[in-house]
Write a structure and sequence with these properties.
Keywords: Heme, Iron, Membrane, Metal-binding, Transmembrane, Transmembrane helix
Distance between the termini: 81 Å
Strand content: under 5%
Cofactor: heme
Protein name: Succinate dehydrogenase cytochrome b556 subunit
CATH class: Mainly Alpha
GO biological process, one term: tricarboxylic acid cycle
Order of helices and strands: HHHH
Structural class: mainly alpha
Oligomer: single chain
CATH architecture: Up-down Bundle
Radius of gyration: 22 Å
Shape: elongated
Helix content: over 70%
Number of domains: 1
CATH superfamily: Fumarate reductase/succinate dehydrogenase, transmembrane subunit
CATH topology: 3 helical TM bundles of succinate and fumarate reductases
Organism: Xanthobacter tagetidis
Length: about 130
């Protein structure tokens, strides 16, 4: 063993110095982030349900917070996260049936997920605000 060549020091696992960020990689990360965001957004849903079930004052407090500019921004982000995560889930469901694994198909599905979530979020909010009056 004394005559073996010196060992080359390499990282134990791939990292960002080896991989350049690809669009599909970023969309995978965003899918995970939206999943975490939905977890915390569910707390808002529970707050709304509890406020509705308890008293008029609790409901008014929730509506005041949700109707504030920051509350509307959080609700808009929650809507986008929900739709983005759902469309990403459909993309993964398609992959379960061995469809869309080609390089062009993967990028197209990732772009469609992002564009679809933005368009659906804006449309949903336009319809919601129009119905609200």
């Amino acid at each position: 063993m004394a005559d073996s060549p010196p060992r080359v020091e390499r990282p134990l696992s791939p990292h960002l110095q080896i991989y350049r960020p690809l669009f599909t990689m970023m969309m995978s990360i965003v899918h995970r982030i939206t999943g975490v965001g939905l977890y915390f957004g569910t707390i808002l849903l529970v707050w709304w349900l509890l406020a509705t079930a308890t008293s008029r004052g609790a409901y008014d407090t929730f509506m005041w917070v949700a109707g504030s500019p920051i509350g509307l921004l959080v609700l808009f982000g929650f809507t986008w996260a929900l739709l983005h995560h759902a469309l990403g889930g459909i993309r993964h469901f398609m992959w379960d049936f061995i469809y869309g694994f080609g390089p062009k198909e993967r990028v197209l599905l990732a772009k469609a997920t992002l564009a679809g979530s933005v368009v659906l979020t804006v449309l949903l909010w336009i319809v919601g605000l129009a119905l609200k009056g």
